[in-house]
Design goal:
With 245 residues, the protein is mainly alpha-helical. It contains 9 helices and no strands. Helix 1 packs antiparallel against helix 2 and helix 6 runs antiparallel to helix 8. The model has no long low-confidence stretch (mean pLDDT 85). One of its GO terms (molecular function) is sequence-specific DNA binding. One of its GO terms (biological process) is DNA-templated transcription. This is Protein ZW2. Pfam families: DOG1.
Amino acid sequence: MVLPTQLQANDSARTFEAFLDQWFIDKEHYLRDLLGLIARNGCGNEVDEVQCKRLINRVVRHYGQYFEANARIIADNVFLVLMPTWFSSFERAYLWMGGFRPGLAYRLVINNVLDLSEEQCWRMNTLMREIKEEEKEITDEFDKVQEVMTTPPMLELLRHGGWMRNGTGHNMELLVDQLKSALGALAECADFLRMKTGIMLMDILKSGQTIRFLAAAMQLQLRLRRWGMMRDAESQMHMFETQPI
């Protein structure tokens, strides 16, 4: 028997997957625009500076659309975000709390923006010390919630599909709701930290540097997605070929 909550989860997943497919198509277009500006030597004159800022604003809105859609999924069913079926197994290996670690943005800047001033480096290092501390706080809180989820009463609840046979089903249902609420709050904090990191890094960078940072971020996401989908397809093909006839 399919429960209403399962149907809702399936609907939420399908809606987000459809959004994500279009979002990655849009990302390809934005990446071409970013690389086009870089090919024209970045933002070396007043005209290009205006173009840079316009494109940066469009790309920021593009990422904003993702976070808005992700927030709706968190509200519907946070477990879908923490165990996302819409990413390949290869992509999921890089995830932290349903997305990339905020610290990855720092490494993308360091590896792709090679003309940072001493002041910019100092500001970035100061920012990343703060971000690492906040990452750790979220991870520590998540570990505490996981400990609760692996207690015998919770495991017993899961074995019986959410209801206990000893009359304590109501109390356990309340506990599940509390866990969902805690996980939802942590997932929201993680997304906020990702947004905060990107915005503060772009505040440190000049327009041309921001263009290179955003291009590197998009290239990484698209590359991981292509590799992941290809590997999953190859794995499924191998399983099909090895099945007995």
